[in-house]
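User: Please fill in residues for this 131-position structure.
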């Protein structure tokens, strides 16, 4: 009988302990399919490294160069010896590059291998240094 009372006392003490509160439920995160996959691809391309464009690009058949100074500056060089003709800003979107001067702009498209920049409306720039 004494062992039964001791056993009940041990059970009563164990039952009186505070129960741990349940852990809060974590919200379930569900990946949604994009509604604009083409735009998402362009944004991802726009966030790519633009180191490939840095440096000097010569316009075929002319004494003109574009000097890209990343992250956003560009200078147009002209003549022999070369001098700065005008300064501007660049805006790149994947393989498309806009050169924005105060009085005009140039729209460029890079080749797949990034060896040349085609000018919208005609003309090509290739890597090359001024004389």
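Assistant: Residues filled in for all 131 positions:
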């Amino acid at each position: 009988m004494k062992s039964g009372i001791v056993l009940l006392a041990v059970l009563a003490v164990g039952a009186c302990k505070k129960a741990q509160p349940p852990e809060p439920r974590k919200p379930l995160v569900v990946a949604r399919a994009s509604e604009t996959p083409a735009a998402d691809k362009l944004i991802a391309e726009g966030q790519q490294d633009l180191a490939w464009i840095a440096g000097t690009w010569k316009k075929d058949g002319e004494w003109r160069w574009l000097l890209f100074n990343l992250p956003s500056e560009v200078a147009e060089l002209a003549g022999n010896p070369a001098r700065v003709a005008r300064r501007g800003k660049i805006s790149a979107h994947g393989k498309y590059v806009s050169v924005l001067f105060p009085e005009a702009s140039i729209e460029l498209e890079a080749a797949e291998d990034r060896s040349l920049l085609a000018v919208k409306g005609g003309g090509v720039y290739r890597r090359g240094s001024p004389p």
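For context: The helical segments are 2-16, 37-46.
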